[in-house]
Amino acid sequence: MKITIDAAQCSGHARCAAAAPGLFRLDDDGYALPYDGDVPEDLEEAARDGESACPERAITTG
Amino acid sequence: MTTTLEPDGTHDGVAAYHFDNRLGGPVLSHQNRWDEMAAAHSGFRSTVARGHWVVTDGPAVQKALQDWRTFSNKSVTALDPDPTFLWIPEMLDPPVHTVWRRLLGHYFSPKTVAAREPEIRRVAGDLIDALKERAGADVLDEFARRFPTLIFMRLMGLPEEDLPTFLDWVHELLHLSHSEDPDGSRRLAAMRAVSAYFEEQITLRRSAPRDDLLSHAMAWTVDGTPINDRDMHAFCILLFQAGLDTVPISIGWALYHFATHPEQRREIVADPSLIATGVEETLRVYSFVVPARKATRDVEVGGCPVRAGEMVMLPLAVTNRDPDRFDNPSEVDLRRKAVNHIAFGSGPHRCLGSHLARLELNVAVEEWHRRIPDYRIAPGQDLWQHGNMYGIKSLRLEWRG
Ligand code: HEM
Asked: What does the H/E/C string look like for chain B?
């Protein structure tokens, strides 16, 4: 599984990091940083939680 | 009392109503009316004053907030398309808006805000401790309005003894009904007083900078030019308007909700880990902010044929109570999986203070229920909510006897 974050759409709600703190990382202002590489299998559910927590729908997993 | 809108003909083929968002109403009446309007229309025309459009399709509201090129913040007041004042950063568009947000971002980031948690918890705890021995109180005046205002004053570096003056100004500026202030003179006087207050605070810091947000901001540059006193002032006025009434309103709704839903109250008392979702859900269900934008070009939105220069109202309640986005949208569900609401807005103007507000709300609900787990709405009140931003006017709770 990969995570794609649309940086133009991210408005810094920081809900992804609240839903899945071990997975999503924020910059100093609270906007999501890109996620490189594959999501470890045991974190796939967390990735989907982060995706559905985003008010801007800026995150896609798959 | 019915709050259903009376039709007022059509405008360019779209249903028109005499819809005046400044008017207050019984508790929850605005939210329920948005549900009704959204069920019947994707958008309508308000015939108040010069007239403006109102979008009532959930996805269309959010898309408009995200599309700053088409929907500008040059005016954010539906009834005033050509304001003579400026609020920073709210009334700026990118790219200047982006510069301000970068400068401010750090001060309001999740990390910076989290560092203040112990202090925020102490302030909340002290205020509730003082109340818990009593039989009851007006929880807006005696808690919800004081707590976030104190935190705000500390953040800005303003003297705490000015708290009562601040609370008075917020009341005069934001809470007066038409009959209390028919010619708007009380509001204007309060605006002048707030203005003069911040002018004085800015002048004080020009001569002797301190270690507070105001002093720091005065040293910033936008496009290589230091921020002048006029823009500094526009920033203070916006923070005052955006930061001082919103958290009190939300705390009021949370206490109202748990007073009227005793089973859910018992659940959060027994398991405080449910509070985080409970807070998000009250923000969503009781959505009280109604942004507006000015169209930069002719565009159709929510079925409304908007012309360049016209104002469009974008009620967040419509997106946040959209049955296509949330099951049982008007119910607070303490175990809802995805609460991706837009109570803090959407797009580039997403509430700068959202992380602070969220923390204050969680702390308020946690500390309150730790000390006062059992309470009810005192009998004999006609609960009423203000227009513009839908906050409860006054809320007396009782917890003894
Ligand atoms: C629960 C409490 C709050 C709610 C529901 C709320 C809601 C909002 C909303 C919906 C917007 C966007 C308005 C628009 O799109 O036109 C906004 C903007 C803003 N809010 Fe809040 N707010 C809250 C608390 C705060 C606090 C505590 C502060 C500061 C201390 C704050 C500062 C701001 C600022 C500066 C903006 C303008 C951002 C910009 O234009 O880029 N808010 N708020």
From this structure: CCCCCCEEEEECCEEEECCCCCCCEECCHHHHHHHHHHHHCCEEEECCCCCEEEECCHHHHHHHHHCCCCEECCCCCCCCCCCCCCCCCCCCCCCHHHHHHHHHHHHHCHHHHHCCHHHHHHHHHHHHHHHHCCCEEEHHHHHHCHHHHHHHHHHHCCCHHHHHHHHHHHHHHHCCCCCCCCCCHHHHHHHHHHHHHHHHHHHHHHHCCCCCHHHHHHCCEECCEECCHHHHHHHHHHHHHHHHCHHHHHHHHHHHHHHHCHHHHHHHHHCHHHHHHHHHHHHHHCCCCCCEEEECCCEEECCEEECCCCEEECCHHHHHCCCCCCCCCCCCCCCCCCCCCCCCCCHHHCCCCHHHHHHHHHHHHHHHHHHCCCCEECCCCCCEECCCCCCECCCEEECCC
